[in-house]
Design goal:
eleven-stranded mixed beta sheet; Protein-Tyrosine Phosphatase, Chain A; 513 residues; six-stranded mixed beta sheet; UDP-N-acetylmuramoyl-L-alanine:D-glutamate ligase; Udp-n-acetylmuramoylalanyl-d-glutamate--2,6- Diaminopimelate Ligase, Chain: A, domain 1; 16 helices; alpha/beta; single chain; 3 domains
């Protein structure tokens, strides 16, 4: 059936044989038009011309740097028998399906070809500027602690319910997303938790995928290199509500004004569950007792009060626990089960993660790379540290320039501020650091600037005294540093461990000044 053309089909997809699906584009995309055919019957699709095989349909999806039309000849040479495109292409001898929104059409087709996997799972989507990874890991921990097999897709890893592998993107491409959810179904998972990035929402990667529960943790400035402004970014984040089932639940952080503004965007049939620490909400916390070992607090919901304990440090992580609690309440778990599940999660890679090498002070590794996240991390560190907080951080190159001075402003709240490189990419790391330092100066703080990240971390460890807390922010779980077009092995955690192990050999290449 590869590349064959139909005049009619009663539904968008049919099962040809076990594990095989054929999709009618005319049935799936009723508003699409066709060139040189009445319909296209599809059993496999690719958006990468290099991966096309005989009988595939090639989706002409342009990226931010390259136009996909130039790859059509390669796709056809590799065997593609039809194309899915946003406008008719001249000079082609193969059928074309013309769709107004190619990205959405591609995602819908991927979803159908994978057997509509979210229809067989309780699926949770977590979006927000900060907290996506921690909330996702908490939800998975709570569900698994009650015996529910759960898959996970996010910034740290993709887990299909049986095996895990490192994640190249926070939210996978639509093709991989559908296939991973399908693998979860095959592996008998009952639940799936996924981080949903603003890029994924803007690029319709979730088209077709239905969420049982959708969460917005917060919306603060980030990714303006892509979204341009807060209005666009906010509108994009709100799109997650469109992917939640009509009978599904929307979980919103009422401590965040932008999240509260999303309530009118909900459908009448959707259920709202709010959570907050500072304001009135459905799920709240009280009696918070913070330390460098974690936080003890009470979860309050519908007149019930249940004690909970998390090894995660910081008030912002209590908020993340409440988000996870609201999700699991929507999925039918009890408050007691939720509290026990929260306690079962020992750590989230690179999220206020402790590195204990026997040193007389605390070292935390955190992924905070926005001013809001960095500010929360530093303030949490100050509450649990008996002495000073030393913060080492930078900002990524080829990204949102506007947030660099904001990062400096946030970083200036530490007692000792050391600015270094993050992933400079094609930019001069010195210039990035100077832009961050401008934000520190607005608070009258003179930071120390050390371009080489390993040297900067060593500097903080050298000057730290007993009772201090060293916060190394920005890269978290990442195991490489992007310098120019090179990806160099680099781990903040390994730098710390090697330092205390007296292994002073380089763990990375120096960044050229």
């Amino acid at each position: 059936m590869h590349g064959s053309y139909l005049t009619s089909m009663s539904s968008s997809s049919l099962s040809l044989s076990p594990g095989s699906v054929v999709v009618s584009l005319r049935a799936l995309l009723p508003s699409a038009s066709f060139v040189d055919c009445a319909d296209i019957c599809v059993t496999s699709i690719q958006s990468d011309s290099r991966l096309c095989k005989p009988g595939d349909i090639f989706a002409v999806i342009s990226g931010t740097k390259q136009h996909a039309e130039k790859f059509v000849p390669e796709a056809l040479k590799n065997g593609a028998k039809a194309v899915l495109t946003g406008h008719p292409l001249t000079g082609l001898q193969v059928p074309q399906c013309i769709a107004t929104d190619v990205r959405k059409a591609y995602a819908l087709l991927c979803f159908e070809l994978a057997g509509a996997p979210s229809q067989h799972l309780q699926t949770v989507g977590v979006t927000g500027t900060n907290g996506k990874t921690t909330v996702s890991w908490l939800v998975r921990a709570i569900l698994q602690n009650t015996g529910r097999q759960t898959g996970l897709l996010g910034t740290v890893e993709y887990h299909d319910g049986v095996l895990a592998r490192p994640a190249p993107l926070t939210t996978p491409d639509a093709h991989e997303l559908s296939n991973l959810l399908s693998e979860m179904v095959k592996n008998r998972a009952t639940h799936a938790v996924m981080e949903v990035s603003s890029h994924a929402l803007d690029q319709s990667r979730l088209a077709g995928t239905e969420l049982s529960v959708g969460v917005v943790t917060n919306v603060t400035q980030d990714h303006f290199d892509y979204h341009q402004n807060m209005e666009n970014y906010t509108a994009c984040k709100s799109k997650i509500i469109q992917h939640i089932k009509e009978s599904g639940t929307v979980v919103l952080n009422f401590d965040n004004p932008v999240c509260r503004s999303f309530v009118p965007k909900m459908n009448e049939s959707q259920t709202l569950l709010s959570y907050a620490i500072e304001t009135e909400a459905d799920v709240t916390a009280s009696q918070l007792r913070e330390s460098d070992k974690g936080t003890v607090f009470d979860i309050l919901y519908a007149g019930s009060r249940v004690p909970a304990k998390t090894s995660l440090i910081g008030t912002h992580n209590v908020s993340n626990c409440l988000a996870a609690a609201a999700v699991c309440l929507a999925l039918g778990l009890s408050i007691a089960e939720i509290a026990e599940g929260i306690g079962s999660l020992r750590a989230v890679p690179g999220r206020m993660e402790q590195v204990n090498c026997g040193q007389p002070f605390t070292v935390l590794i955190d992924y905070a790379h926005t001013d809001d996240a960095l500010r929360h991390a530093i303030r949490s560190a100050k509450r649990v540290s008996s002495q000073r907080v030393l913060c080492v951080f930078g900002a990524g190159g080829d990204r949102d320039n506007a947030k660099r001075s904001l990062l400096g402003l946030a970083g200036s709240e530490a007692d000792v501020t050391i600015i270094t490189s993050d992933n400079p990419r094609s930019e001069d790391p010195e210039l990035i650091m100077q832009a961050i330092a401008e934000g520190c100066k607005t608070k009258g703080v003179t930071p120390e600037l050390i371009v080489d990240r390993e040297e900067a971390i060593h500097r903080a460890l050298e000057i730290a005294r007993e009772g201090d807390l060293v916060l190394i922010a920005g890269k978290g779980h990442e195991c490489e540093q992007i310098i120019g077009d090179r990806r160099i092995p680099f781990s903040d955690r390994l730098v710390v461990e090697n330092y205390f192990g007296n292994t002073h050999s380089r763990t990375s290449e120096k960044i050229p000044a």
